[in-house]
Amino acid sequence: MFFRTQFLRRKPIEIRNNPSNFAAETDREKLLRLKEKIQNRIDALVNNILFVTLEPAMTKAAEDSINTALREVITQRRVTEGMRPEVKKIVDAAREKIAAKQIAGLTDSLTAGVFGIIDSGLSHNIRYERVAEDVYRYLESSKYGNLIHFNNVGNTYEAVRISPDGKLSLETKVIRRPMTLSVKAYAATLTRTAVKGVTSAAQVETYRVNNCAGWVYNCVSDERSRPTHIALHGRHFVYGTEESDLALRVMQDYNCRCRPSAWFNDPELDTPEAVYEQERQDRANSALHTQYLSECAKAVANNPLKSKATKMNPTLNPEQLNALVSRRTGSNSDLDFLRKIAKVSDEECISKEIALLKKNFTHQGVQHSYKHIIDAKNQYNFEDILYVKNNGEYIGIANRPDGISKVYLGKSITGIPIAIYIQDDGRIGTSHFCGVKCERELRRRCK
């Protein structure tokens, strides 16, 4: 089984004009042949322990410059040479520790059985999907059936505490509620987390034996990322320190998708800290935007302060509206954590999203859109509606009771079909989920 390591990010460098180096290889076909040659070399070196993919570098080279791609290739070769014996040792040592940790809570006999399946999969490099399926079949055939119940209320466990500035420490937590999961979901999560934890430990050990100065914590950039993991993005750690051990432990959290990369303590190779700092703030701001936009829209939709004299487009009282939103956002610990990373206040976030709503929606548009989001069981949100407003397909004019509107159809980033109706002032009067039948009817009416 091959594991993909996260691609190391490096600054582009200038390769001097020397016939003996690769700088002259500017032709795409030659570059692809170079990719194949180096890929075969890496496959032989890794020998089924880890797999370093070069395709992102090749794609980048085709779009940007060959020099950047070559830097990626050379750096990857530097950290993969001679890795096999040491990585195998760390895999052997780590898999038992990590896998056993993940299945705590099962009976002793089931723990032994599940661990045996995961250990065998790791030992024989079997794809984690197949291992997860074997774990699922094993648990399904046990007394659990289709569901597995955990009732450890009152028990304590040690967890890693992460502060917004990336400081790490251990704390004791108490389990406060029972949990029930489908056996299939539990098997997939359990196996994925155990395999990923072993892989991360092996990657870090690879960097150590190849004389890298340390390793860097890389967080995935999307809405699923935990605020605490965003706080660790781009932080570097030195082998053998308590902080390094705790950061690796964070990567063993359930469903964590974070990855390590090499840190060289070399400005020519390492991404500057200022870049990582900006990325942390950008990711925190992106998460804040999604959640604050939803909370502000909810407050506007349910706002009791609308003026009867201007029913179609009432004036909102900013101070009272801000107070309505702040009751929910001001005391939210996750949002407070993200605000500290982004270095913004609760008031700033609310004002920004209220202004965005006023610019793009009428008051009635917010109310109707919110109702349709609820009716569609929250498959999409206001951010998706704005995405369709900016990227949707114009299909024609619709005569509605509230006036004539331009109709746009499109899909959210996650593929949910949405119809929006834009009034003459450029603001959304309403929007709703639009399935196949709805789309067909809209296109007929708007010809």
Classify the beta-strand content into a percent band.
5-15%
Class of secondary structure makeup = alpha+beta
Identify low-pLDDT runs. Answer: 1-26, 44-87, 305-314
Total number of domains: 4
CA(first)-CA(last) distance: 55 Å
Mean pLDDT: 75
Note the run of SSEs as H and E.
HHHHHHEEEEHEHEHEHHHHHHEEEEH
What is the tally of helical segments?
A: 16
Question: Main sheet: which strands, in order across?
Answer: 8-9-10-11
Q: Based on Cα principal axes, name the global outline.
A: globular
Summarize the structure.
This protein is an alpha+beta fold and 447 residues long. It has helices at 28-46, 55-63, 66-80, 84-102, 108-123, 128-140, 183-209, 227-232, 242-250, 273-301, 318-329, 333-342, 346-360, 363-375, 382-391, 436-445, and strands spanning 147-150, 156-162, 168-174, 179-182, 214-218, 236-237, 259-263, 393-400, 403-411, 417-422, 428-433. Helix 2 (55-63) packs antiparallel against helix 3, helix 5 packs antiparallel against helix 6 and helix 6 runs antiparallel to helix 7 (183-209).
